[in-house]
From TrEMBL, chain A:
Keywords: Cell membrane, Membrane, Transmembrane, Transmembrane helix, Transport. It is found in: Cell membrane. Residues 67-257 form the ABC transmembrane type-1 domain. It is a multi-pass membrane protein. One of its GO terms (cellular component) is plasma membrane. The keyword Transport applies. The keyword Phosphoprotein does not apply. GO terms for biological process: transmembrane transport. The chain crosses the membrane at residues 12-35, 73-93, 105-127, 133-154, 183-204, 234-254. It comes from the Bacteria. Pfam families: BPD_transp_1. This is Spermidine/putrescine transport system permease protein. Belongs to the binding-protein-dependent transport system permease family. CysTW subfamily.
Automatic annotation (TrEMBL), chain B:
Residues 12-240 form the ABC transporter domain. Pfam families: ABC_tran, TOBE_2. Keywords: ATP-binding, Cell membrane, Membrane, Nucleotide-binding, Translocase, Transport. GO terms for cellular component: ATP-binding cassette (ABC) transporter complex. This is Spermidine/putrescine transport system ATP-binding protein. One of its GO terms (molecular function) is ATP binding. PROSITE patterns: ABC_TRANSPORTER_1, ABC_TRANSPORTER_2. The keyword Nucleotide-binding applies. InterPro entries: AAA+_ATPase, ABC_SmlMolc_Importer, ABC_transporter-like_ATP-bd, ABC_transporter-like_CS, Mo/tungstate-bd_C_term_dom, P-loop_NTPase, PotA_ATP-bd, Transp-assoc_OB_typ2. The keyword Ribonucleoprotein does not apply.
Length: 265, 404
């Protein structure tokens, strides 16, 4: 009798903990094996503890180069997609123009289409236009698929904004430029930030589309995939763990800042 | 102001100002002058063009024809941020990402004023919000938000303050309180207020001058008492308070008094108070307000002084609402005459079914053109009830009266 009652009362917590374990175990394995000193080429069995990989994160040929390339592309793709996507979202949410309905639909396509198809067709396009594969083709491809996510996130935000707020600003002597920077942008900011974060994450770990358009360039996901055939270096685990920790810290910092603002207000 | 014109004393002057959206005309060419320092109300049902008119003054809508002058200056081509007016928006439109203080300081800062502290403090005191300066709008009650909206507009000392249904979102009690508050502030700061509302009581309580709008036109403009006593159309007669409108025919005129016949009865109407052409044989509407009518039991008919308009009838419905009792009386001139009797001494005989005589001073009768919709200005439900059955008309009217 009592155990069932206890179970009933704590079911939600138990389910939550189980889901958390399910999500965290792979990350913890990656973390654990970043401290491994593997016997042979493959880092799949525990040998003994070592901090070698953490002390020499760039000790593997080509890895940090690919990481730099991925980060660079992710930053540029995020900026490009966020600026373009925000403008597109405002156009779609605020104005009536010829081709608006078509644009609205086409914007969703990159999200719905299989990545292989997009990657292959983009590759064909670049090939036919005789554009050299490399940094720029990867960047163009990434901006393209990130754009949809930014437009979707920002549009939802802009649609829910009260147009009278901007009218009120104008009524209170704000020029159109001031209205945009003082009212519109701050109000749309959460949507823009969400779009930008999504863009960065999507760009950083994209493999399929990138592999069709990279030419000789090697991004970090491509490096990981390539090295997995020959034996993954421990440093990959180090980078993976570092990214994971950084993301968690950023999210926590964001929540703390938000919580403090709420408490102060 | 800058260029003195004959009408420089007007804070706002609209000349032939009109607005249409495609084939739909929201505001017909409109001439309107708002004297400086006055409390002016634009009154009408929703969709009558009153908000569009206000937005044209603010510069948020461009008129399709005509001009807008503010204090003698033509501002028709000026964008809203260059006009010396400020608006209190419906639902307030407070900036949600700024606190009360920054909301109020917004206009000053945009005009490049650096030290806003003293002014913002004074303004927050005026609307009694000093302690809440660091709150966000969503942390305030409706009435507090409303006062922030007023403070945010007033701090700029505009030539004209525009109010777009500013009390519409508040509950009844708070609304009454804010009406008085707004009136107090207007007297204190001496700025011209242009107030848009659909609430006739609100307009009459607060404004010096009321313009009644209907279907994109101003039906009538004047002081509240003047509009109430001398309505120029059936719309105004029905929209402002309640009117009994009796269809009648002109039988003759003598000494400035028109003699009318209706339902076989004779009624008198001062010719000066008749808005319609009134040659012998013309049809007019004779109107009288329900509170001007005295109700007497048929047995007391002899006590009625001579020279008054008399109509016999039978009480159909009565409802006691405290300050007065409202009767609906079936009579030969009209099946549902309304009579409001002040609650002084109640006559127990005046119950539904009782035979009565209605009488009133002919001076209290007004005449209107019969070529217009007699039900204009009544809301749909009430107009329908009037057409259907007198009993229902009575309950609908009393229900509405009780709700006010």
């Amino acid at each position: 009798m009592r155990p069932t009652r206890w179970l009933r009362r704590n079911l939600v917590v138990i389910a939550g903990v189980l889901a958390l374990i399910y999500l965290m175990v792979p990350n913890l394995v990656v973390l654990a094996f970043s401290f491994n000193k593997p016997k042979g080429r493959f880092n799949y069995t525990w040998n003994h503890f070592s901090t070698d990989a953490w002390q020499h994160p760039c000790g593997v040929a080509g890895m940090c180069g690919s990481l730099t390339l991925s980060l660079k592309i992710a930053v540029y793709a995020t900026i490009g997609a966020t600026v373009l996507g925000t403008m597109t979202a405002f156009a779609l949410a605020r104005y009536r123009f010829r081709g608006r309905a078509a644009t609205n639909m086409l914007i969703f396509l990159p999200m719905a289409m299989p990545e292989v198809v997009m990657g292959a067709s983009l590759g064909t396009l670049f090939l036919n236009m005789r554009i050299r594969f490399g940094f720029w083709t990867i960047l163009i491809a990434h901006i393209m698929f990130c754009l949809s996510f930014v437009v979707t996130a920002v549009k939802a935000r802009v649609m829910s904004m009260d147009p009278r707020l901007e009218q009120a600003a104008q009524d209170l002597y704000a020029t159109p430029a001031q209205t945009f920077y003082r009212i519109t942008l701050p109000l749309a900011a959460p949507g823009i930030a969400a779009g930008a974060l999504l863009s960065f994450a999507l760009s950083f770990d994209d493999y399929i589309i990138t592999s069709f358009n990279a030419g000789n360039s090697v991004t970090f996901p491509m490096f990981v995939w390539g090295s997995a055939q020959r034996g993954t270096p421990v440093q990959v685990n180090v980078i993976g763990t570092a990214m994971f920790v950084l993301a968690v810290v950023l999210v926590l910092a964001g929540q703390l800042a938000g919580g403090r603002r709420r408490a102060r207000g | 102001m800058t260029s003195p014109t004959p009408a420089a004393g007007d804070a706002v002057r609209l000349t032939g100002t009109a607005k249409s959206y495609g084939a739909f005309t929201a505001v017909h060419p409109l001439d309107l002058a708002v004297p400086a320092g006055s409390f002016f109300a634009l009154l009408g049902a929703s969709g009558c063009g009153k908000t569009t008119t206000l937005r044209m003054i603010a510069g948020l809508e461009a008129p399709t024809a005509g001009t807008v002058h503010l204090g003698g200056q033509d501002v028709t081509a000026l964008p809203p941020y260059k006009r010396p007016v400020n608006t209190v928006f419906q639902n307030y439109a407070l900036f949600p990402h700024l606190d009360v203080y920054e909301n109020v300081a917004f206009g000053l800062r945009r005009r490049g004023i650096k030290s806003v502290r003293k002014q913002v403090g004074e303004m927050l005191d005026l609307v009694q919000l000093g302690p809440l300066a660091r709150r966000r709008p969503h942390q305030l009650s409706g009435g507090q938000q409303q006062r922030v909206a007023v403070a945010r507009a007033l701090i700029n000392r505009p030539q004209v303050l525009l109010l777009d249904e500013p009390l519409g979102a508040l509950d009844l009690k708070l609304r009454r309180q804010m009406q008085l508050e707004l009136k107090r502030i207007q007297t204190e700061v001496g700025i011209t207020f242009v107030h848009v509302t659909h609430d006739q009581e609100e307009a009459m309580t607060m404004a010096d001058t009321v313009a009644v709008m209907n279907a994109g036109r101003v039906e009538q403009m004047g002081a509240p008492a003047d509009l109430y006593e001398n309505p120029a159309s059936t719309f105004v007669a029905n929209f402002l308070g309640t009117s009994n409108l009796i269809e009648a025919e002109v039988a003759g005129e003598e000494g400035g008094t028109l003699h009318l016949t209706s339902g076989g009865l004779r009624l008198s109407l001062p010719a000066a108070r008749c808005r319609a052409q009134a040659a012998v044989g013309d049809r007019v509407l004779a109107g009288v307000r329900p509170e001007k009518i005295t109700l007497a039991h048929r047995d007391d008919e002899d006590a009625i002084p001579a020279g008054r308009n008399r109509v016999p009838g039978r009480i159909v419905d009565s409802s006691f609402i405290g300050v007065s009792t409202q009767y609906v009386v079936d009579s030969p001139v009209c099946p549902d005459l309304e009579v409001f009797v002040p609650n002084v001494g109640r006559d127990a005989r005046l119950a539904p079914g009782a035979p009565v005589v209605l009488h009133w001073d002919p001076e209290h009768t007004f005449g209107l053109d019969a070529h217009q919709d007699i039900d204009a200005g009544l809301d749909g439900l009430e107009a329908e009830a009037r057409g259907a059955a007198p009993e229902r008309a009575g309950t609908a009217a009393t229900a509405e009266e009780a709700a006010v």
